[in-house]
Each structure stands twice: as C-alpha cells, then as structure tokens.
C-alpha cells in the first residue's frame, strides 16, 4: 500500500540519529514498501483497488513486519557493528507496520481495502482504520511528511550551528 506518511517518520528520525544520512532513514521507513514493489513487479502481491482488497501478506502482514525489521536490524548490525544504528533502522522498518495498522483499512483511498493481514491468511486482519475518513487520511499523509520535514530541517540547522561554533 503506497503511502507517503512513512517518509515523514524517516525524516523525523534525523532528530535521534543526526549522523545517519536521511536517505537511509527514509529507505528504512519505506523498506516494507520496497519489498512490496518488488513482489508486485514479480506478480506475487497486488495493490488494493476500489473493488478488491490488496494481497500483500509477504510485505505487509504484521508477522512479516516483525521479520523484515529484525532482518534489516541484523543486517545493519553486521554491516556497521553499531548497535544503536541497528536498533534505529530496525525500529524505523517496524514503524511502517505500526503506522499501517493505525491507518488501515485505508478505505478513503481504496474502497475495498481490508486492513493489515496478521499472518499469511488475508482473512485475518487488524487495523484501527483511521484512514477510513478522507479528511483524516489526507491530513495524516501530508501532515506526517510536513512535520517530518520540519523536524529534519530544524535538526540540520542545529547541526550547522553547532559546527559553526566549534
Ligand atoms: Zn505500506
């Protein structure tokens, strides 16, 4: 389920980890979407339409969200040998699943959306359904990006100032 709100989460993470490039933070927050796009291109998963719900249990189920988060975290730990970095990346990947649970079913965008599958059986789903309401959905999507961007820009300014003083 393509969504831009996750980008805001990635940008805002700059506040707690100023050393990691924002591109990596955004990639982590959208990692599950990247997995989805690969599986979608391969014909395995589908996007929701107005008539049918999506089929994306390998990228978007809650259980796979946990799996991808651990995988990304351990990969970063192996690569960087830095526990804090690994923890932040793993948490960011999982933030995608969390945010999708809050938002799904996103019926404001996809009328037939059924919510987040828990396991691989897509008849069992969870979701608080905040994106059922069109206004909330739009404010949510763009609001997250805007707030994330403001946090990011503020953090960059702070880093620059610190650098100029020392
Ligand atoms: Zn998603």
Shape: globular
What is the alpha-carbon Rg in Å? 17 Å
Biggest sheet: strands side by side, in what order?
1-2
The ligands bound in this entry are:
zinc ion
Give me the number of helical elements: 7
What portion of the residues fall into strands of 2 or more residues?
A: under 5%
For the terminal residues, how far apart are their CA atoms? 45 Å
Oligomer: single chain
Poorly predicted tracts of residues: none
Can you count the beta strands? 2
Task: Walk me through what this model shows.
It is a single chain. This protein has 166 residues and is an all-alpha fold. It has one domain (5-165). Helix content is 62%, strand content 2%. The protein has a two-stranded antiparallel ribbon with strand order 1-2. Helix 1 crosses helix 2, helix 1 (5-12) packs antiparallel against helix 6 (83-103) and helix 1 (5-12) packs parallel to helix 7. It is globular and about 60 Å long. The N and C termini lie far apart (45 Å). The mean pLDDT is 93. It binds zinc ion (ZN). Zinc ion is lined by residues 1, 3, 32-33, 60, 96, 100.
Helices and strands in order, then pairings?
Elements: H1 5-12, H2 22-29, H3 31-41, H4 57-60, H5 62-80, H6 83-103, E1 116-117, E2 125-126, H7 134-165
Antiparallel strand pairs: 1-2
Helix pairs in contact: 1-2, 1-6, 1-7, 2-6, 5-6
Offer a concise description of the structure:
The protein has one domain.
Question: Which descriptors would you attach to this protein?
Answer:
single chain; 166 residues; mainly alpha; two-stranded antiparallel ribbon; 7 helices; 2 strands; 62% helix; 2% strand; binds zinc ion
């Amino acid at each position: 389920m393509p969504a831009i709100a996750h980008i805001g989460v990635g940008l805002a993470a700059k506040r707690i980890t100023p050393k990691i490039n924002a591109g990596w933070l955004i990639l982590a927050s959208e990692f599950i979407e990247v997995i989805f796009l690969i599986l979608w291109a391969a014909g395995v998963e589908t996007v929701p339409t107005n008539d049918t719900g999506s089929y994306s249990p390998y990228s978007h189920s809650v259980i796979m969200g946990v799996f991808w988060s651990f995988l990304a975290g351990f990969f970063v730990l192996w690569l960087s040998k830095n526990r804090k970095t690994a923890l932040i990346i793993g948490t960011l990947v999982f933030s995608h699943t969390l945010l999708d649970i809050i938002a799904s079913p996103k019926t404001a965008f996809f009328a037939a959306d059924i919510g987040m599958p828990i396991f691989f059986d897509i008849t069992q789903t969870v979701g608080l359904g905040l994106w059922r309401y069109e206004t909330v959905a739009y404010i949510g999507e763009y609001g997250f990006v805007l707030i994330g961007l403001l946090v990011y820009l503020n953090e960059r300014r702070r880093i620059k100032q610190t650098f100029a003083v020392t």
